[in-house]
């Protein structure tokens, strides 16, 4: 009778176990005095087992980086052990974790290790002045509009970024040195995403919504540069690339220059042609020649500017029809819905409106969204023929917090006065 296979051991646990065995016994034994266990026995092996039990067991690979979950190595007695260890003692732990997780095939080894501390919705202290104008009111300036991962905790590898190094007014005016930062990649739905983990976020949970766009709306369109999708919060190209893969031309807006650079690198990695338009525009001044911008024929055109200029830019397009507008901002993208409604061309087109909604409030919120668009459609009809707007579907993407869903409201816009 064959023996059952041995249970597969967790590679991080393997690395931690070997590292603990390599430490001077006195270093581990010193923790027994600091750590109050619930048992009467606090031997050397007891402490090692507690450390092992409280080490992280999960990870995500974004080549060449390994990202550990928030709270890793934060449970006692880990902080005491790490603070009492020298860098030469802790380095072997980080390198052992990377070695355990690195691929055994011909792919390059993993070289960077960090703990994910999340993307704060608000910054706890004033950040450096924004590089570009914002529509936010002064009292909202501490909102983390750029979704910067300000609490990423690097453990190993050169990440090259020190947030406090840009304190002088002169340095704030310097363009970002993109090549001096770590860039990581992953592939979802056969599309490559690229970003700098200390400057921009990455949300794994969007994979479901990206796949839905590809599967649910792919059959509506044949590849054509005449059909346009608009992405008003492009980020690193989460949804931009899905629309591009469907054969549409995509115009997108993004405020964070690091996200725009990630979008540019990702587009090139996926084989999409791309143009970046840096358009710092004072209010009321139109300094972008849309005819010239679009003449190059690039499949993706990204505007590094506030999306409050998007409606004006889209109105200046010639010989193109907007068939999708994506509004992917949380907790709510409502601030751009009126503009998005006006962007859809003749015939029919879709708006994808992202919002966080309480689990028990989704139907009520759907009704509110419907009333909003009914009102706008009625206003438009008075001037311009028949217009319809219908909330066709509410997609529950993922839970954002207990009892709160990240929802996408699909709104179908129809305009009968134009040629479909």
Automatic annotation (TrEMBL):
Q: Which reaction equation describes what this protein catalyses?
A: 4-demethylwyosine(37) in tRNA(Phe) + S-adenosyl-L-methionine = 4-demethyl-7-[(3S)-3-amino-3-carboxypropyl]wyosine(37) in tRNA(Phe) + S-methyl-5'-thioadenosine + H(+)
In the record, biological process GO terms are: tRNA methylation; wybutosine biosynthetic process
Give the principal location in a single coarse category.
Answer: cytoplasm
InterPro entries tied to this protein? MeTrfase_TRM5/TYW2, SAM-dependent_MTases_sf, TRM5-TYW2-like_MTfase, tRNA_wybutosine_synth_prot_2
Which cell locations does it reside in?
Answer: Cytoplasm
Pathway in which the depicted protein is active: tRNA modification; wybutosine-tRNA(Phe) biosynthesis
Record GO terms (molecular function):
S-adenosylmethionine-dependent methyltransferase activity; tRNA 4-demethylwyosine alpha-amino-alpha-carboxypropyltransferase activity; tRNA methyltransferase activity
Which positions fall inside the SAM-dependent methyltransferase TRM5/TYW2-type domain? 116-415
Its domain of life reads Eukaryota
UniProt keyword annotation of Transferase present: yes
Keyword Plastid set for record: no
Keyword annotations for this protein? Cytoplasm, Methyltransferase, S-adenosyl-L-methionine, Transferase, tRNA processing
* Pfam families hit by this protein: TRM5-TYW2_MTfase
Q: Under the cellular component aspect of Gene Ontology, which terms does the record hold?
A: cytoplasm
Q: Looking at the record, which segments are called Disordered?
A: 122-148
Q: What does this protein do?
A: S-adenosyl-L-methionine-dependent transferase that acts as a component of the wybutosine biosynthesis pathway. Wybutosine is a hyper modified guanosine with a tricyclic base found at the 3'-position adjacent to the anticodon of eukaryotic phenylalanine tRNA.
| Entry's family note | Belongs to the class I-like SAM-binding methyltransferase superfamily. TRM5/TYW2 family.
This one is known as tRNA wybutosine-synthesizing protein 2
């Amino acid at each position: 009778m064959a023996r059952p296979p041995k249970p597969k051991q967790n590679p991080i646990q393997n690395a931690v176990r070997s590292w603990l065995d390599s430490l001077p016994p006195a270093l581990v034994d010193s923790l027994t005095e600091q750590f109050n266990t619930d048992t009467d026995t606090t031997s050397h092996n007891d402490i090692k087992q507690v450390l092992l039990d409280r080490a992280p067991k999960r990870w995500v690979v974004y080549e060449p980086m390994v990202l550990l979950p928030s709270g890793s190595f934060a449970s006692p007695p880990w902080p005491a052990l790490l603070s009492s260890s020298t860098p030469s003692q802790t380095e072997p732990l980080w390198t052992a974790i990377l070695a355990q997780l690195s691929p055994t095939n011909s792919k390059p080894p993993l070289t960077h290790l960090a703990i994910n501390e999340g993307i704060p919705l608000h910054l706890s202290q004033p950040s450096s002045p924004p590089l570009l104008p914002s529509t936010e009111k002064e009292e909202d300036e501490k909102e983390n509009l750029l979704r910067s991962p300000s609490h990423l905790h690097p453990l190993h590898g050169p990440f090259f970024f020190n947030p406090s190094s840009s304190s002088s007014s002169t340095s704030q005016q310097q363009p970002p040195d993109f090549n001096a930062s770590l860039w990581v990649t992953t592939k979802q739905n056969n599309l490559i995403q690229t970003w700098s983990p200390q400057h921009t976020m990455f949300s794994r949970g969007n994979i479901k919504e990206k796949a839905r766009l590809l599967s649910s709306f792919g059959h509506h369109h044949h590849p054509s540069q005449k059909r346009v999708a608009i992405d008003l919060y492009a980020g690193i190209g989460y949804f931009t690339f899905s629309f591009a893969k469907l054969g549409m031309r995509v115009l997108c807006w993004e405020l964070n220059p690091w996200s725009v650079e990630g979008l540019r690198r990702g587009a090139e990695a996926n084989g999409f042609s791309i143009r970046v338009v840096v358009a710092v525009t004072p209010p009321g001044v139109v300094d972008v020649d849309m005819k010239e911008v679009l003449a190059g024929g690039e499949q993706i055109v990204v505007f590094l500017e506030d999306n409050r200029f998007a409606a004006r830019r889209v109105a200046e397009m010639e010989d193109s029809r907007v068939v999708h507008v994506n509004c992917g901002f949380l907790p709510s993208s409502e601030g751009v819905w009126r503009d998005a409604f006006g962007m859809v061309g003749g015939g029919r087109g879709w708006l994808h409106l992202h919002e966080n909604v309480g689990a028990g409030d989704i139907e009520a919120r759907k009704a509110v969204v419907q009333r909003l668009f009914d009102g706008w459609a009625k206003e438009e009809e008075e001037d311009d023929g028949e217009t319809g707007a219908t909330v066709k579907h509410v997609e529950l993407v993922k839970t954002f917090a207990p009892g709160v869903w990240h929802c996408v409201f699909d709104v179908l816009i129809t305009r009968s006065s134009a040629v479909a």
